[in-house]
Amino acid sequence: MAEEEEVAVRTEKVKRIQRVFINLLDSYSSRNIGKFLSTSVVGASLEEITEEEEKHDEDKSAVPEASSANLKEGTFQIVGTLSTLETPCPNFAMETYYAISREDLLMHLLECDVIIYNITENPQQVEEAIWAVSALNEEISHFEKRKVFILVSTVMTWARSKPLDPGDSEIPFTEEDYRRRKHHPNFLDHINAEKLVLKLGKKVRKFATYVVAAGLQYGMEGGILHAFFKLAWSGEVPALPVFGDGTNVIPAIHVLDLAGVIQNVIDHVPKFHYLVAVDESVHTLEDFVKCISKSTGPGKIQKVPKENAFLTKDLTQEDIDHLLVNLRMETLIVKENFNIRWFAQAGFVENINSILKEYKQSRRLLPIKICILGPPAVGKSSIAEVLSKYYKLHHIKLKDVISEAIAKLEAIVTPKHVGEGGEEEGEEEEEAETVEDAQEFLDGIKESLEHNAEFVCSLDASDEFLKERVMNLPESIVAGTHYSQGQFLRALSSYRDRNTEDETVLNYFDELEIYPIHIDVGKLEDAQNRLAIKQLIKEIGEPRNYGLTDEEKAEEERRAAEERLAKEAMEEAERQHKEAAEMAEKIARWEEWSKRLEEVKREEKELLEAQSIPLRNYLMTHVMPTLMQGLNECCKIRPDDPVDFLAEYLFKNNPEMQ
């Protein structure tokens, strides 16, 4: 009875806690913790988990989506900060803040019942977490009700701890040993933050402080292991790298299990203030990488020097420190006192299928599998190569697959040699096993075809078109291939004989309800198959793969800038050319106008001269002789009134008057 009353009291205390602050909601860890809490009912972890609920939870591979407009009644209300303004507000958050002052941030913190500061991903947040817990501690007298402060730290603050037993290094550390922990040199600020948080929460009822030391976080979109997932998915390397010998043990936890631990801390408000959040696994770095390689990559690993880790662009210094740590840890308080609906309690390797499914869904990675069929010289290889680059797919050549399959079958059916003096007993059993192995291998190939082919592209063209294409190929390409005249004609004839309307491989895919995309390459009349590739991309759709890397984005931006500058230069050159042409045309028009003007002046002058001839003749005949004589006399005599003298002279000497 007393226990029930105690649980009821604790439940009442918990139900008052509804508003939760989490820093950097746009980061991997905080985002998933926030999303998890936004779908969790306050006080739900106080109830025991039934077997039916455990079975139901096993079927769930990821936390359900939540939106601020449609939250379950009684769930935590999530608010928090963002690292960049460009980041869209998470749909599960009630409020988000960016680049606000410390005064405004403190005001928002005081409005919350739970404050979670996650310092596992961004070391710059350690200083803000120290400020936040110190500022809240100064405001305790103004608290209306108890507040809970949770610092999500990392097990790297234990990285240099001395073994509990020098003779047995496999004994794991537990929460009870936290006073003996020794930090990694790069995590000094983290352990100082842990000590301050624990110190400020001592003997204070209204301010409960907790430290949760989390292992390497995985699950959902990947975390630190995302670099290995991406490398395996892209297929750019033949083997995934293992830094060092790979025997170091890495404490780890699924990010949603970490969120479950935090939920239990909020609900239970335990008396233990330092907790370790790790799963039950004892996986080494080699175990992690080998599992990723087998599940989604080349299936091989390669041990490389530790220094090579710094050449991996997707790994930060903190990430590398986590991957190289060698630490065995076990969480007792979480197991014995909390009710957690585990997502990956057994560890990463045991739950790789669900983790990989989460990863693909979170990253929206949906592999595209394309099978291209068609007669010789229709362009299968060239089109497959272009599509492989466009969709970032493996280009698997049929000839290589058949050769590998034949080699494996030969290895299976080759009789086992018996040493000299050996008995022949059991030969029939060995032969039966060999047949079964061969049949199993063939069934595996068939099953792979049925499950892997997603798009089937059937290319075709007339025999005349294919013959002409081969005849026009350069000698350097034809040499050493089956495109020589005799071999090509035999291959084409054999293909036509084996692929009739009643018997063709396309019928097999029709039975699997995979309907081929038919393209007649001959009708497109495109030697480079650009139109066929464009049509296939349109049918298949956009790539469902990783976006551009930072380098590819920079290259894309550089290419766009160059194209923009080239376009601007072309437009400028075109403008200058246009202006020059207009100026030349203007000068030509001016010269033509000037020439025409001179011509007009000349014609006018000639016209005036022609019109003035009779007048000149008249003057020279009747006026000029007498006038000249009069002028000469005027010059000789120089009268006082020359005009009157000249008039009188002309009047007296007028020839017509005489």
TrEMBL record:
Molecular functions (GO terms): aldehyde dehydrogenase (NAD+) activity; kinase activity
SUPFAM superfamilies cross-referenced by the UniProt entry: NAD(P)-binding Rossmann-fold domains, P-loop containing nucleoside triphosphate hydrolases
Keyword Metal-binding: no
Keyword flag Kinase: yes
Cellular compartments per GO CC: cytoplasm
Keywords, ordered alphabetically: Coiled coil, Kinase, Transferase
Region Disordered, annotated ranges: 49-68
Coiled coil (residue ranges): 551-610
Gene3D superfamilies assigned to the protein according to its UniProt record, in alphabetical order: cAMP-dependent protein kinase regulatory subunit, dimerization-anchoring domain, NAD(P)-binding Rossmann-like Domain, P-loop containing nucleotide triphosphate hydrolases
Entry protein name: Adenylate kinase 7 isoform X4
Organism expressing this protein natively: Tursiops truncatus (Atlantic bottle-nosed dolphin)
Lineage: Eukaryota, Metazoa, Chordata, Craniata, Vertebrata
